[in-house]
Amino acid sequence: MRIIDGHDWSPDGTDGALTAWLPSPAMSSTAATAATDPTPASFLQTDHVRGVLAGRAQGRPHHAYTCSVATLPGVVDRARMTRAVNAFVAAHEGLRSTLTVDGDTPDGPIRRRTLPADAVDLVPTPVTGTVTELLSTTAVFDHSPALAVVTAARADGRSFDLLLALDHASGDGISQMTGLLELMARYTGATDPAAEALTADTHPSFLDYIRDEQSRAATVDDDSPGVRAWRGLFDVTGGRVPGFPLPTGIVDGEPQPVVGIAAPLADRDLTRRLRSLARERGVSFSTVVYAALGLAHARLTGETHYATVVVSATRGRRYAVSQGWFCNFTPLYFPVTGTTVEDVLPEVTAAQARMKAALDEPVHASLGHLILSGQVDPSVMGSPQMVTYLDLGWFEEPEGADIRLFTGFGRTSNANLWIHRNADGLGLGCQAPDNPTARESVATYAATVRDILATV
Q1: Using the 8-state DSSP alphabet, how is residue 86 labeled?
Q2: Radius of gyration for the alpha carbons in the chain, expressed in angstroms and rounded
Q3: What is the pLDDT along the chain (456 residues), one digit of tens a residue?
Q4: Structural contact between residues 276 and 455, judged by C-beta atoms closer than 8 angstroms
Q5: What are the Condensation domain coordinates in residue numbering (predicted)?
Q6: Structural domains in the chain?
Q7: C-alpha to C-alpha distance for 265 and 298, rounded to whole angstroms
Q8: Residue 159 and residue 76: Cα distance in Å, rounded?
Q9: Alpha-carbon distance 70 to 455, whole Å?
Q10: Which is nearest to 361 in space by CA: 204, 224, 209?
């Protein structure tokens, strides 16, 4: 399992090689007339919907989706794949739930409609254009369902690729990994314990999670762990949201088109040494990763504190294989008190404990409290530097599947990082502004992290 640049997988349908599973007329009619579901959009869904509509109003195509693709042997059996796709969507209420905004106005009220499971009817349809064109109109929040399942015949004639694309309102990175594995298990008829868990008739619903999130947000006060954690971060940064430590070529804060950048951080042998260090010190592997990021920040800027925002999974065991956006943005900050990874581990451990305490407190409620009480400026709701750590080694993929993860390419004013571990080692993926300054800065940053890890 690995992360790739989305441009590296972009077949088109000119040779009849592409098939997408799209809603039948009956399914579309049912979706259009479904009653309003009282479950609100989640906080992250609301931000996403408003951002997509703002881009739509300016004529920009939609690229705010995530994708995963795997290679399967043989020629696709469309009837069997149809059963797999429909069972997959029917099993996840979050995938059957669509968001719309009257008049497509970015500030309009968001309405939810949820299809019953027995109304799901996705049918194989030839694709004549490009995958990118298809995803911009199907893997979007107001298409029912807000996803695309596509197969692409490979040139060898003996295998095909299976793509799952999710609008970001419908899924996160873990949704991509478990969703594709679920589709594969349903298609192949796998019966091992992992496949049985994935192919249950129904999974715990993302809508239940949203309702619980609303309840948790209502209890936030000045002494809540999330409020305290965010207040501490702004104390460290002087009231600013964290940014990338090197120039990104952004002018006047105006976002630019995204470029995907990948860089190795540690090979297989070094990654084994890093894991051994984590075990010896009784910390998680991510603690070692964040220590290296903090040291790189200090080395590049001369600052004695590191601060960033971590995209943290909030699934717990209940929602382990559910489809939805089970994430929170949590503040990570610590003093960089030494010059080696080992030196910094105690500070990172304490910072992660603080971050864990804030995990269940919705970031919008925490920041909203700080803003409304006058403790921070509303500008903190801007676009911070974000870091995501993905341990792809937890997910078993079928032999030969070569599962690849990628995202659509929109616009950004920051250089967000995806640090990922897989069988080949530790790597960095970055979506940065597409300009020479940002490219050079990300390369410098990656080389600095790599040099720090190499000393372990």
Answers
A1: H
A2: 22
A3: 888 888 888 887 666 689 999 999 999 999 999 999 999 999 999 999 999 999 999 999 999 999 999 999 999 999 999 999 999 999 999 999 999 998 899 999 999 999 999 999 999 999 988 899 999 999 999 999 999 999 999 988 899 999 999 999 999 999 999 999 999 999 999 999 999 999 999 999 999 999 999 999 999 999 999 999 999 999 999 999 999 999 999 998 899 999 999 999 999 999 999 999 999 999 999 999 999 999 999 999 999 999 999 999 999 999 999 999 999 999 999 999 999 999 999 999 999 999 999 999 999 999 999 999 999 999 888 788 899 999 988 888 899 999 999 999 888 999 999 999 999 999 999 999 999 999 999 999 999 999 999 999
A4: no
A5: 62-356
A6: 2-211 (3.30.559.10), 221-454 (3.30.559.30)
A7: 18
A8: 8
A9: 36
A10: 224
Specify the DSSP class assigned to residue 382: S
Cα separation, 438 vs 432, whole angstroms: 6
Structure tokens, 308: 């960033």
